[in-house]
Amino acid sequence: GAGVSQSPSNKVTEKGKDVELRCDPISGHTALYWYRQSLGQGLEFLIYFQGNSAPDKSGLPSDRFSAERTGGSVSTLTIQRTQQEDSAVYLCASSLAGEETQYFGPGTRLLVL
Amino acid sequence: RKEVEQDPGPFNVPEGATVAFNCTYSNSASQSFFWYRQDCRKEPKLLMSVYSSGNEDGRFTAQLNRASQYISLLIRDSKLSDSATYLCVVILDTGRRALTFGSGTRLQVQP
Lengths: 113, 111
Description:
The complex is a heterodimer of chains A (113) and B (111). Chain A is mainly β and 113 residues long. In chain A, 0% of the residues lie in helices and 47% in strands. Chain A is globular. Chain B is built from no helices and eleven strands. In chain B, the strands form two sheets. In chain B, strands 2, 4, 5, 9, 10 and 11 form a six-stranded mixed sheet that branches. The A-B interface holds A 31, 33, 35, 41-45, 48, 56, 59, 91, 93, 95, 100-102, 104-107 and B 2, 4, 32, 34, 42-46, 49, 87, 91, 96-104.
């Protein structure tokens, strides 16, 4: 079956521009997570959505980062006024409610020049 | 101190060798434990969950020691295809279930 998909796969932008990254979770998965993997760093949690509950934004590094999830399915991560330190691979994962196994998408590689 | 610590390696081993990776976690309230595998420029994929009783999946054996806050992964009869980065992962919060990752241990199996 279809896995988690993300778009774009690669994004190059100039410092100061806004970017939007998209995630399509596995159908029926109510939990959705965003993570970031910077060069030389481990993966770090950014934000968590579960069904219609308010998202857990505790991992967002600054107020330039925001995310939304429409209709309990597709999610968009927005980074405003991008900085060079935002360059990373942004990974989305989804899971069934109550399950611990998360399935990752292929990620979006963001490069801020 | 990082919440999950791993030796970054690389571990360079010949085919057929047995290799062991270790990981320590700092939060005694950690609830669940996993090993993920990540190939170069790919997303992480679950390799196996880790239980106190130990669990085995083919050539892979994982073990958890809650008292020492220590997790291990043993790979027997290494294959070239085992070359990857192995990520030690814990869940700190059963409500949120967000994964906390170690920085990974790189394994290179050589012919």
